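Researcher: Please translate sequence to structure tokens.
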Amino acid sequence: MDETFTQLPLQLDPASKSISSTVADENLADELRALNNLHRSLLSLETPVPPPPVPVNPRRSAQITKLRESGNTSFRKGAYADALRMYTYGIEMALGRPAWEPAGLVRDELSGLYANRAQTHMAMQNWAEGMIDAETSVEMKRVGNAKGWWRKGRCLVEMGRLDEARVWVGRGLEFEGSEADLVALSKEITGLIARRG
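Model: Translation complete:
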């Protein structure tokens, strides 16, 4: 059975907002009658339409912040496994935000959490995991995220992937300008590549 689209001439009455058609089709007339009845019944409601939901759940934001701070405290104490767990819980909570909440907020939260988790992986010498988290942090927030750019570059250096590190840090410098840590890492990478010969 071939399905085709047939455009029907519909008119909207400016005063009553009812929809009508000049096509003599009983099925169409029934559908339009039902639509117009629904429209009239919605207009006759005495209760107003409820307001949209609160755009940001402040409790969720507070919980995400608390998890990040707990992770930071654990990291400073050298309890890296606990820090990883706290950052992971924070990431899961941020990813679980409803779709109507601002995407920019979610991206900012995730950028910081992934950057912190990358640092924790680096402290544990989990270079591949740190690299992935640092790159994810940068994907969430490219500008103003020098730590994310630096951390992936450092992980690549530690894994001996110097050419990739040079390209990555070069891209980071395009976004971050002359950020001191990135410039120093770029010089270090250039020296390592020159020694490698």
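Researcher: Any highlights?
Model: The longest strand covers residues 10-12.
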